[in-house]
Input
Amino acid sequence: MATTFFCTDCGFETSKWSGKCPSCGSWATLKESTRVTGKANKGGSPDHRAPKPERMKDIKKPPLARIPTQIGEFDLVIGGGIVSGMLVLIGGEPGIGKSTLMMQLSQWMGVQSKKVLYVSGEESPEQISLRSARLGVDSENIWLLCTNDAEHVINAVEENQPDILIVDSIQSVSLPSLDSVPGSITQLRETCNRLMRCAKTLNIPVFMVGHVTKEGFVAGPKIIEHIVDTVLYFEGELKGQYKILRAVKNRFGSTNEIGIFEMTSQGLIPVPNPNHIFLSDEALHIGTSIGCVVEGSRSFIVEVQSLATSSNYGTPQRVVVGLEQKKLAILLAILEKNLALYLRSSDVFINLAGGIRSSDPSLDLAILAAIISSLKDKPLPDKAVFIGEVGLNGEIRPVPQLDQRINEATKLGYDRIFVSGHAKTRQRNKVTKIKDVRELYNACLGDAR
Output
């Protein structure tokens, strides 16, 4: 065994410790780990010769068979269904619904006569039985194994040959042959590698629940996310009614796809029409605007709420919910530069309704419109949607998939859609083109300031 140091943020490996990661520049992220090493096979045997390269176009391409769960939102997030041999990591805040989703996934697959092996390293059989009764999980094809030993898990898979394996959670399962505590970097890396080999050799899909850090990332080294095929994150407020399942990595489908679920006493229920979640009501108030974001293959109408008030302290507050903090600072600087609005003595708060989080630059125009409405204490035009990216000089830039966004807005009854003056779209009747922030101000509130 050799001692190495892993960066928990980027997965960089080095033989010496330092306070700052040489790769990503993060401080105090290098953690000591033990790498399991073995002797090199110098002679080699005829059965273990090195593989030879093949011409890529000559490789046989078997059809990608998927196992649908019959739940549209979940199938959409993972790319259309479960693929045999795929390794999936699910992260999220404690209590947000990861174990509930895995228990319901067992039921969805069990009713399709698929044999499910549910492994729990954190709860007793009695606890899981109580939860399954509450969620209505009663399939005879679900088998439960409560253990912290990864070797027992792999042996149970080889003996029982399930159609799907669920491990809750990966931080609680460890290899007894390694001299380190469960949840350490060494244990997580080696356990994930063993489960990956098990999934690929036996062609069994494996779902692993992962704990998250206080920053919201999956705990452990970044190499875990590199190993797995798909990474899913649960988003939303812990006490909120709606939860968002987002795919941030998917080797078998599109990334950044989201599924909307409603948390009820009977578990998670898919939401077929999510647009009404992100809109509070039909009447827009002062400081409220409507934007449109594209997440994966779907577009959503989003309500942007803004509040600008006089600051009671020397340094004004800049608070955002659902967006990046730096994005608000940039947009406020653009307003001050181009419209001569004095914002240095105002607290500015931005919120995306419904608990959605988005980094789509098309929301820039909607955010600026909401801030202007709140500052001037005047409502925006009725049935208006703002779609566009804002440059540092105040120009409005076009965004991709514009026609898809416009179609979604018109389908919901919006008849005034503000887009970039340089945008190319097939829609003509309900579209208003603006070139810069000044035209946005005039179009929303008139020429008088």
Observations:
- Residues 1-38 form one domain.
- The chain has three domains: 1-38, 66-272, 276-445.
